[in-house]
Each structure stands twice: as C-alpha cells, then as structure tokens.
C-alpha cells in the first residue's frame, strides 16, 4: 500500500501524473488536483459522467477548514495476535482476554455498560497506537533503514537499548527523546546509529491514560498489592475511551482487566434538558452553587439523581434539593437537642424498652441492610431515598412527634424517657455514619457539635454493627396496624382543626370504634392516646354511628370526635380532669410528681 498525500494536502512529488498537485491548499481552498483527476479520467475514456453535488464533508472543528483523509503508515497493537507469552490468562489474544475479563472478572454499574463495551471490543479493529503530533509521549522505537515492515530485523529489539531509554526518561523526562545525539547515545556500542531511523511519532493519548493502572496502583508503594483497581468511574463515553484503552493495555501486559468494577454516569444538562454551552449561556458553575448553597447541597443533588442517565440541574431543581437538605438537617437538630447530657448510665437494654422503641430498632435493622446493600451497589439514590423517608416520615412525623411529650415532660429517670433517649443515641450514631458519604460537611458539623475534639470525626467511624435480634416481624406487623389506625384518628382531628373547633390535637378526646378484635387488642396495648397525641382516647368494639369519620382505604375503623374534659396542664398541655387538684398549681398528676 502506498502513501500518496503529503501533510500539506498535496500529492507526493514523485507520484506519476499528479505529483506535487494540491488537493486542498494551505488556506483550505480546493486545489487543482480534483480537476486534474477528472481530466485524466476523461482522457483515458474512463469517465462515465461528471457533475456537482452539495454535501456535508469533514471540517476542522477549530478552524472550520475542510479536511481530507490521508493514508499514512502507523503503528498498531494487533489485538488478535496469539501472544504466546506464558501468561496464565483465559485467552491468548488481547481481544480474547478482554472479552473474558468483561464477562467474568468485572462488575459493571449499570449492567448496560457491559453490553456497550463488549460489543465495542468484540467488533473493534486493531488498536492504532501512533499519532503524528508536535507533542506527546514518543513511541521510543528505532527501525532499520531500508528494511521491510515485516522483516525480522525491521524493529530494533534489544533490552539493553530499552533499559537506557527508561533510565534517560526517568532522569530527564520524555522530551529527552528529541534532544540532539540521543539516538547515538542509546545505540552506542550496541548497534550502528547510522543504520537506524528514530521514530518521531507519538503515542495515542489513550495509551497514556490506559497506563494509569500501572503507575497509580502497580508501581506505587501505597498502591493495590495486585495492581488491580477496585473501581474505575467516568462518563458513558469512556466505554470507547479510557475504560477500553485501560482494558486492552492491561490485557496485553497483565493478562486481565485492570479493574474489578466499572461505574458509568450520564451527563449534566440544564433545567430544560439542553446540553450546557457557553454560547447558549446555560452553563451551571459548581463554584457558584457551592457559594450560594454550600458543597453538601451539590452533593445531595448528585445523590438524589439517577446518575446512570443524563441529569438536569438548575435553580428550581436546586431549591427542591435545598428543601430536602433542610428537612434532614432538622432531624439531626432534634437529635442533638434531645440528647443533651445523655450518658452511658442512662442507657437501657432493648428488652427493657417499650414496644414503640423496639419498633424503631426493628426499622433500624431493616434500613441497615438496605443502606449497606445500596452503598455496595453504588446506588446512592436508593440510599438517600431510604434514609430521607426514614428520617422525615418514620422519625420526624411519627416517632419524634409521639415521644416529644415523654422527652419534655417525663421524669429524667423514667423508663420511657430513658428508652427514648437510648434509641435517639443509637439513631444519632447510625444516621451520621450513613449520611456522612453524601453530606460529609454537615455530618461532621453534627458530630463535632456533640463530640468536640481534635481527634474527633464522623469520618473515622465505621458503620455500627446491628444486632440480629433487633428484627421483630411480629412486633412490626402490630405497629403497622397501630400506625394505620393513627392515620384515621389524625385525619378526623385535622378536619376539626381546619374548621377551628380545636387548635391542637391535645384538645380532643376521640372515641375510636374498631370492628376487628385483633386490631382492638393491638390498639389497647399500645398507649394509643399517646400515639395519637390526644389528652384522652376511648377504644370500643361498639358499632360506629353513621356520621362517624372514616377513611375509605382503611376499613373497620371509625372516629367520633369529642372534646377533652378538664383543665389544661401548664406543663404538658394535656387537658385532664385532675389538673389543679395537686400540690403544684395547674399541673396534672404526672407533672406534679415529676416536679417533686
């Protein structure tokens, strides 16, 4: 195969008929070669027709000038050549090793990444390693003058020469290749420099990046012992780029992929789904987001997103993210405030705790498994959604709401308050650790607010182990029944709050009609009035009147509203008949006893 076009866009001078004629001029204009070709075809009687068409043709993305394809000699890595190098590998060719690594040794996240890179490697041609650029890492080859490419002595293969080149590069960098007299120094005493040409091509930059597994992991004292990375992560375009160049290079030199896992993500678009562009003025600068919201908001936006696809970002989207952040932060603030002064002497064993606290421990055991599984699978969206729902729905809107009364009004040494604070302490340690990878600054702030000190950091804490006996499915089923019943009561009270009959749920003493005996028993053994945050509550199996409140989706439960009787306790705000009959004026029996 001949190489007919010179770098300046003209035919080489020794070419018959068209030698020296320009196909494209240096200015990007059409040269005379095209017309000459047509004339010669006509002269030879080989021209069927001629005409002009308008079509899209390659242009330089920078200068906008038209370009043509040139046929030039290049260096290739033959990926289907039997290496026969004694490596203990699944396949002897680079392609075979790569395909077996893709299928058997690498975990792809998402799994579609496997299909993408597999088809690319399966169908790709040999890897062209050389580039003709003014910069880059040189190929470091010497070839014999006048020898054919397939001749055994065409490429100088001598380990002594290679060792000299390596030593020179380590001492003075890759640019030493271009210094005067370098070839003579490298071949001195080994081969006649006059017999060899020094290759001035540079390596494909993908070969540079594909080598990172060696100098980042294999050749470093603190690198992985086997030189294999746990994870490579980049955008989806790198199945064609870095992931593949790393794979091919390592399969040639190591016999396998340089990574155990590969994670790919989509790209960031503006709020309308448009690609960000300076010319469109729709770019989002991370530094500006961090300046306005803080770094954790940006990290939380990432955690909320399905990163496996392209994602949108903009001011309105970030407002929603900031709201999620605020709600999580409020959960942590409640924990900090409620745990002030808590110590080991106050802790209770799970068996001594009320059922509601045992239910929270059950939920923690469930979530612990989900969080660990999510992080292991790089499912940050799943981890965030699990923790956000738990913190805002199970805790803030349910458990915290119920236990505020005990935390504020029970005696410090009471079993219920000690149990609640013990559970809050467990919640504190787990939530800060679970959220630390997503919100590192906020969780460090929360941790240091409770445990200040130079050596104190949430990022030095492991995920706490969760006892297996915290799981209690029977208890969970009971409290799911209680929770469903609570929804009916709170919905009935909300109507009365809306029409201004009451201002707070503690002004109510509803009657709850329960058809199912098992449900009635569950509610009778759950301190249901405390669960519903009412001053009093009556449970009955009697048939409910027709005008009783019901929720269509929860059958067998009906609520009749009644106002609580008595006076309002000045301490716990419950309305009870005994308020005002104790030593401390304006208190109920519990508050009077606590006050001493």
Describe the protein.
With 596 residues, the chain is of the alpha/beta class. The chain has five domains: 1-72, no CATH class; 77-129 and 208-265, no CATH class; 140-200, no CATH class; 320-470, Isoleucyl-tRNA Synthetase, Domain 1 (Orthogonal Bundle), CATH 1.10.730.20; 475-565, hypothetical protein PF0899 fold (2-Layer Sandwich). The chain contains 19 helices and 17 strands. A four-stranded mixed β-sheet has the order 13-12-15-14, covered by helices on one side. A hairpin with a 2-residue loop joins strand 14 and strand 15. Helix 10 (295-304) packs across helix 13 (380-409) and helix 11 packs antiparallel against helix 14 (415-435). The longest helix is centred in the middle third of the chain and has 30 residues, at 380-409. The protein is elongated. The chain starts with 32 loop residues before the first helix and ends with a helix.
Overview features:
single chain; 596 residues; alpha/beta; 5 domains; three-stranded parallel beta sheet; 42% helix; elongated
Report the CATH architecture of the largest domain: Orthogonal Bundle
Radius of gyration, in Å, reads 37 Å
Biggest beta sheet summary? 4 strands, mixed
Q: Unreliable stretches, pLDDT < 50, 5 or more residues?
A: none
Proportion of residues in extended strands: 5-15%
What's the arrangement of secondary structure elements?
Blueprint: H1 33-43, E1 76-77, H2 94-104, E2 107-109, H3 112-123, E3 127-128, E4 130-131, E5 142-144, H4 159-172, H5 182-187, E6 196-198, E7 202-203, H6 205-210, H7 212-218, E8 232-235, H8 242-253, E9 261-265, E10 268-269, H9 286-293, H10 295-304, E11 311-312, H11 315-338, H12 355-376, H13 380-409, H14 415-435, H15 440-450, H16 473-498, E12 511-514, H17 517-524, H18 528-531, E13 538-540, E14 549-551, E15 554-560, E16 567-568, E17 575-576, H19 589-595
């Amino acid at each position: 195969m001949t190489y007919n076009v010179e770098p300046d866009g003209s035919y080489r001078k020794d070419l018959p008929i068209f030698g020296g004629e320009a196909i494209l001029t240096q200015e990007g204009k059409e040269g005379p070669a095209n017309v000459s070709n047509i004339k010669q075809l006509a002269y030879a009687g080989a021209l069927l027709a001629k005409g002009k068409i308008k079509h899209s043709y390659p242009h330089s993305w920078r200068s906008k000038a038209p370009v043509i394809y040139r046929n030039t000699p290049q260096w290739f890595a033959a990926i289907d050549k039997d290496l026969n190098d004694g490596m203990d590998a699944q396949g002897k060719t680079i392609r075979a090793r790569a395909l077996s690594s893709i299928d058997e040794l690498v975990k792809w996240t998402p799994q579609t990444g496997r299909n993408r890179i597999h088809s690319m490697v399966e169908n790709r041609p040999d890897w062209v390693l050389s580039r003709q650029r003014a910069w880059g890492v040189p190929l470091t080859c010497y070839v014999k003058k006048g020898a054919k490419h397939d001749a055994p002595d065409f490429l100088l293969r001598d380990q002594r020469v290679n060792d000299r080149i390596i030593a020179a590069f380590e001492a003075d960098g890759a640019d030493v290749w271009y210094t005067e007299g370098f070839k003579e120094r490298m071949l001195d005493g080994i081969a006649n420099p006059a017999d060899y040409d020094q290759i001035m091509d540079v390596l494909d930059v993908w070969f540079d990046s594909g080598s990172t597994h060696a100098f980042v992991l294999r050749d470093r004292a603190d690198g992985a012992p086997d030189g294999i990375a746990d994870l490579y992560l980049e955008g989806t375009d790198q199945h064609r780029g870095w992931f593949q160049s790393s794979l091919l290079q390592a399969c040639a030199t190591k016999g396998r992929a340089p990574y155990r896992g590969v994670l790919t993500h989509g790209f960031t678009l503006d709020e309308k789904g448009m690609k960000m562009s300076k010319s469109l003025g729709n770019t989002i600068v991370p530094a500006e987001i961090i300046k306005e919201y803080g770094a954790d908001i940006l990290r939380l936006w990432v955690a909320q997103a399905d990163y496996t696809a392209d994602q949108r970002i903009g001011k309105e989207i970030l407002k929603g993210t900031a709201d999620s952040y605020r709600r999580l932060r409020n959960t942590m603030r409640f924990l900090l405030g409620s745990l002030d002064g808590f110590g080991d002497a106050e802790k209770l064993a799970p068996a001594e705790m009320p059922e509601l606290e045992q239910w929270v421990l059950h939920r923690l055991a469930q979530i612990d498994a989900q969080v660990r599984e999510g992080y292991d699978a790089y499912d940050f969206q799943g981890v965030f959604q699990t923790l956000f729902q738990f913190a805002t729905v199970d805790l803030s809107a349910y458990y915290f709401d119920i236990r505020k009364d005990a935390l504020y009004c029970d005696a410090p040494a009471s079993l219920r308050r000690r149990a609640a604070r013990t559970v809050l302490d467990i919640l504190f340690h787990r939530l800060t650790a679970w959220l630390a990878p997503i919100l590192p600054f906020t969780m460090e702030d929360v941790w240091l607010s409770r445990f200040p000190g130079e050596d104190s950091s949430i990022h030095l804490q492991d995920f706490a182990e969760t006892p297996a006996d915290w799981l209690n499915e029977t208890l969970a089923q009971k409290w799911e029944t209680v929770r469903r019943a609570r929804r009916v009561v709170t919905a009935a009270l909300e109507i009365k709050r809306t029409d201004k009959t009451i201002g707070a749920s503690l002004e109510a003493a509803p009657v709850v009609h329960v058809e199912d005996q098992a449900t009635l028993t569950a509610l009778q053994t759950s301190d249901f009035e405390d669960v519903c945050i009412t001053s009093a509550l009556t449970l009955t199996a009697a048939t409910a009147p027709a005008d009783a409140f019901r929720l269509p989706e929860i059958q067998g439960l009906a609520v009749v509203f009644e106002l609580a009787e008595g006076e309002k306790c000045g301490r716990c705000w419950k309305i009870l008949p005994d308020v005002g009959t104790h030593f401390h004026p304006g208190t109920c029996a519990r508050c009077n006893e606590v006050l001493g």
